[in-house]
Write a structure and sequence with these properties.
The complex is a heterodimer of chains A (about 70) and B (about 400). Chain A contains 3 helices and 2 strands; from the N terminus they run H-H-E-E-H. Chain A is α+β, with helices and mostly antiparallel strands and about 70 residues long. Chain A has a two-stranded antiparallel ribbon with strand order 1-2. The N and C termini of chain A lie far apart (about 40 Å). The mean pLDDT of chain A is about 85. Chain B is α+β, with helices and mostly antiparallel strands. Chain B contains 9 helices and 5 strands, in the order H-E-H-E-E-E-E-H-H-H-H-H-H-H. A 5-stranded antiparallel β-sheet of chain B has the order 1-5-4-3-2, sandwiched between helices. The longest helix of chain B has about 55 residues. Chain B starts with a helix and ends with a helix. The chains are: A alpha+beta (about 70), B alpha+beta (about 400). At the A-B interface, helix 3 of A face strand 2, helix 5, helix 7 and helix 9 of B.
Chain lengths: ~70, ~400
C-alpha cells in the first residue's frame, strides 16, 4: 500500500504514523519498497501477515463469542 | 325471582361462550406450539457437530443471512416473520442435522395478538402454517444445499482465511447492532402508543372534568366549546409524541447508523475482486465495534413477547381470563354473593399469578443480559492480555 495512503487510512498525524511505522520496521512486520513511479510502498512481511492473522483471529473469537449461549 | 333466574341463566350462557372461546383459543395455541416444536431430519454428515454448525454458520453469513450461533444449534432468520433452528446431534457415523421451524420476534407478536383478538386463533393458526411452510422450504432448499456442497476451507494463513474471519466478525457485529436497533425501536413504538393513548386519554378526562365544572356541558355546545377541547386533546397527544421522539430518536439513529456501516463494510468485504482493493479500515472498524458491543447487548434485552412467547401467552390469556372473572363477579354483586366471591377470588388469584410471571420473565431477561456482559468483559480482557503479551514477544 502506498505510504501516504496508509497514513491517511490510519487517521493519525504524520509524526505518530512515522513512529509506528519505524517500530513495525524494527520488528520486521513490514518493509518499505520503492514502486516504479517513485512512490514508497509499505508491504507486509510474512511475519507481519502472521501477526495480522493472529489479531483478526482473536477479534473474531471475541465478537463471535458475544452471543453464544 | 324470574329476573334472578334470567340473570343467572345469562351469566351461565356467558360463561359457556367464554369457555368455548377459551377452548378454541387454547386449541389453536396447542396446534401452533406443535408446529414449532417438531424437528425434521435434514442431512447426515461425517464431521463433528460443532464443525458442521460452524461451517454452516459461516456459509450462511457469506450468503447474507442473519445467523445466531447457540450451544448445539443455529438460529437463522428468513423473511416474513419466519426463521429456522438447525440442530446437530452426534451419532456413530458423525452428525445428524435436523431443523425446526421458528418465529422471529415480529412473527411471535403477530401470533400472540391474533390468537386473542381475531377469530379465536384461526388467523394465528393460518399465519403459523404459512411461517412453517416458509421455514421448511428454506431449510430443505438453502440449508440442505449448503450442507451438501460443504464448505471449502481456506489455506491456513492465506488472504482467504483472513477474509473469512473478517466476514464472520462483520456479520456478527452487524447482527448485534441490528437486533439492538430493532429491540429499541419496538420499545420506542410501545412507549409512543402507550404514552399518547394513555396520556391523551387522561388529559381528555381531566379536561372534561374542568369543562363540566365550568359549566361547558352539552347544553352549551357550540363550535367554540367543541373545537377548543378537541384541539387541546389532540395537541396534547402530539406534544407527548414529540417529547418521546426527542428522547428516543438520537439513540435509535446511532444504533441504525452502526448497523448500516457494518452492512456496507460486509458488502464490500464479500464483493468480488476485493483482494486488491480491500478496505484497510475493516480491522479498525471491528476494534471500534468491540467497544460498543456491551451497549448493544444491553439494548438487545427484549421487553416484549419474544423473550418467552409461552410466558407472554399466559400473561395475555390470563389477563383476559381475570377480566372476565372480575366482570362476572361485579355483575353478580347485587344478587349472588357466592358467585361474586368465587369469581372475584379466582380473578384475584389469576392477577397475582400474572404479576409473578411478569416479574420472573423480567428477572430472567436481566440475569441473562448480565451474564452475557460478564462473559463479554472477561473475553475482551483476555484479548487485551493476549495482544499485550504478543506485542512484548515480538
Amino acid at each position: 500500500m502506498l505510504k501516504t495512503r496508509l497514513q491517511v487510512a490510519s487517521r493519525v498525524n504524520y509524526d505518530v504514523f512515522t513512529k509506528y511505522l519505524t517500530w513495525m520496521l524494527s520488528k520486521e512486520l513490514v518493509t518499505v519498497e520503492n514502486s516504479p513511479d517513485g512512490h514508497e510502498k509499505v508491504v507486509l512481511t510474512r511475519k507481519g501477515q502472521d501477526a495480522y492473522l493472529k489479531l483478526v483471529q482473536w477479534i473474531n473469537e471475541v465478537i463471535l463469542g458475544a452471543s453464544k449461549r | 325471582m324470574l329476573a334472578l333466574i334470567v340473570i343467572v341463566f345469562a351469566e351461565l350462557l356467558l360463561l359457556k361462550m367464554f369457555l368455548t372461546v377459551l377452548g378454541l383459543t387454547a386449541g389453536s395455541a396447542v396446534l401452533v406450539g406443535m408446529l414449532f416444536l417438531k424437528r425434521f431430519h435434514l442431512i447426515s454428515k461425517p464431521e463433528h457437530p460443532k464443525t458442521v454448525l460452524d461451517d454452516l454458520a459461516h456459509m450462511l453469513r457469506a450468503d447474507r443471512h442473519r445467523v445466531e450461533r447457540r450451544v448445539g444449534h443455529l438460529r437463522v432468520r428468513v423473511k416474513g416473520g419466519a426463521g429456522v433452528k438447525v440442530y446437530a446431534k452426534e451419532t456413530d457415523e458423525g452428525t445428524e442435522v435436523s431443523f425446526a421451524a421458528d418465529l422471529t420476534p415480529e412473527g411471535w407478536t403477530i401470533v400472540v395478538i391474533t390468537m386473542f383478538i381475531v377469530s379465536y386463533g384461526v388467523i394465528a393458526f393460518l399465519y403459523a402454517i404459512y411461517v412453517f411452510l416458509k421455514s421448511r422450504r428454506f431449510a430443505q432448499d438453502t440449508i440442505h444445499r449448503l450442507l451438501s456442497v460443504g464448505r471449502v476451507r481456506p489455506k491456513p494463513g492465506s488472504r482467504e482465511e483472513v477474509r473469512e474471519l473478517l466476514v464472520g466478525s462483520l456479520s456478527e457485529g452487524q447482527r448485534l447492532a441490528e437486533e439492538a436497533y430493532e429491540t429499541q425501536k419496538s420499545n420506542y413504538e410501545d412507549a409512543v402508543l402507550l404514552g399518547t393513548v394513555l396520556g391523551t386519554g387522561a388529559f381528555a378526562c381531566l379536561l372534561m372534568l374542568v369543562l363540566y365544572e365550568l359549566d361547558w356541558g352539552p347544553d352549551r355546545m357550540n363550535a367554540l366549546t367543541i373545537v377548543f377541547p378537541s384541539t387541546a386533546v389532540i395537541g396534547f397527544g402530539v406534544f407527548v409524541w414529540l417529547v418521546l421522539r426527542w428522547r428516543w430518536m438520537p439513540h435509535l439513529k446511532k444504533l441504525k447508523g452502526w448497523s448500516d456501516v457494518l452492512n456496507i463494510a460486509l458488502t464490500k468485504e464479500l464483493s468480488d475482486g476485493f483482494a486488491e482493493h480491500a478496505d484497510p479500515g475493516v480491522f479498525d472498524l471491528l476494534s471500534e465495534v468491540c467497544s460498543h458491543i456491551p451497549e448493544w447487548l444491553k439494548a438487545r434485552q427484549p421487553g416484549g413477547v419474544y423473550r418467552s412467547p409461552f410466558a407472554w401467552f399466559f400473561i395475555i390469556f390470563g389477563g383476559l381470563t381475570a377480566a372476565q372473572l372480575l366482570i362476572l363477579g361485579l355483575t353478580a354483586t347485587y344478587h349472588d354473593t357466592v358467585v361474586t366471591l368465587t369469581a372475584t377470588s379466582f380473578g384475584a388469584v389469576v392477577v397475582i399469578a400474572i404479576v409473578v410471571v411478569i416479574r420472573r420473565v423480567r428477572n430472567v431477561a436481566r440475569e441473562e443480559t448480565e451474564r452475557e456482559l460478564t462473559e463479554w468483559k472477561s473475553r475482551f480482557a483476555e484479548l487485551e492480555r493476549k495482544a499485550d503479551r504478543f506485542l512484548q514477544e515480538l
